[in-house]
Amino acid sequence: MNTAPSLFALPPQIAEAGVWAHDFATKYVRPVAAEYDAREATPWPVLEEAAKAGLYTPDFAREMFTEPTGLLQPVVAEEIFWGDGGMGQALLGTFLPAAALFGTATAEQIDTWLPEFFGTPGDLAVAALCASEPDAGSDAAAIRTTARYDEATSEWVLNGTKTWATNGGIARVHVVNAITDPALGARGHALFLIPPGTAGLSQGQKFAKHGLRASHTAEVVLDDVRIPADLVLGGKDALDQRLAAARAGTRVRVPAAMATFEMTRPAIGAMALGVARASYEYALEYAGVREQFGHPIIDNQAIAFMLADMATEIDAARLLVWRAAHQARSGKRFLRGEGSMAKLKASEVAVRTSEQALQILGGNGYTRDYPVERWARDAKIFTIYEGTSEIQRLMIGSAISGRRIR
């Protein structure tokens, strides 16, 4: 079984979870990945199998976000995305809003809403985190979606348009980033839970994407969406205290959505690693059997050296991802941009490795008869979503210099 090589001794339960996830990806993800990519459809039957297996459940999500080493999440994510990027995004997309719960919500909110995110076998659900907007991608502080508190009804009223939302519009629960006080900019941001069936929430455009086609991505439109006061993550009292401190000029914690992205950057790096490793392993096997000029092409230095670089870069990226994941779970701040380093390195390794794999396969690699074409398409998104490579470099540069980099 060709699971990710253990670069140091993993706790037995983490290693076992990696094998479990790899087996699931082998049995249920890879056989239908090309089909769902071509159809650009959510793989509900595979989600059902994942729920039955215990992989797509609130209990496993809770374990992912509370396990003490922090390594369970990246190990499992790498194996699922080794199966396929688009299918992996469909399977793990709900874990992003779940991360927002564990990073921001009260214990009561987690207990109440986490089961709603996933549903149960036979009655599955997905959840969506709605952060980006048409005019606010990398510049998260520029969001315009508003959340106004109506004292007369004790309700929040949300208005705006979100974009690039995984599971947007088809989610049972949407977690929406909105601004509660425009004068405070990013310090006035908060995350809100939109329950199923809430009037005023609708799906806008569903995007036809270059890659990750098995994952549903769409706009979410909020038109006078009214929700109870207690559906702001962390509770209204905590939000009021934070806003009052910000108005008084006191330094406040990182806004909720940005805190979520800090938590998930190592996981995004692990997802990229899965695609990179799939590409490398396929190219390595292909190079050993493809013959040109009377011998396997791996005997040529040009091919062997390319594969050597791919293997080295993947292992180096994995170490950065695991370091950041462990550091985050241990409550240690990313003082040198370690989370951004992990996401930056792994995402760019995924792009280079998938392109090199395609090159090794030559004309075969450029056809849809071979999976490297799909993996190359899937890989590119990792350098874009949840913080572009340029934003990651900006954050690392700011961290190591102590200066504001523009």
Which key features would you list for this structure?
single chain; 406 residues; alpha+beta; 4-stranded antiparallel beta sheet; 3-stranded mixed beta sheet; 14 helices; 51% helix; globular
Give a verbal description of the structure.
The strands form four sheets. The chain has a four-stranded antiparallel beta sheet with strand order 4-5-9-8, with no helix packed on it. Strands 3-6-7 form a three-stranded mixed beta sheet, covered by helices on one side. 51% of the residues lie in helices and 15% in strands. The chain has 406 residues and is of the alpha+beta class. The mean pLDDT is 93.
Set out the fold topology.
Elements: H1 12-29, H2 33-39, H3 44-53, H4 58-66, H5 72-83, H6 85-92, H7 95-104, H8 107-118, E1 119-120, E2 123-124, E3 127-130, E4 146-150, E5 155-166, E6 173-179, E7 189-194, E8 201-206, E9 217-228, H9 236-247, H10 256-289, E10 291-292, E11 295-296, H11 301-329, H12 338-361, H13 372-379, H14 389-401
Parallel strand pairs: 3-6
Antiparallel strand pairs: 1-2, 4-5, 5-9, 6-7, 8-9, 10-11
Tell me, briefly, the overall form.
globular
- Ranges where pLDDT stays below 50 over 5 or more residues in a row are none
Relative helix content: 40-55%
Strand order of the largest sheet: 4-5-9-8
Short description:
The protein has helices spanning 12-29, 33-39, 44-53, 58-66, 72-83, 85-92, 95-104, 107-118, 236-247, 256-289, 301-329, 338-361, 372-379, 389-401; strands spanning 119-120, 123-124, 127-130, 146-150, 155-166, 173-179, 189-194, 201-206, 217-228, 291-292, 295-296.
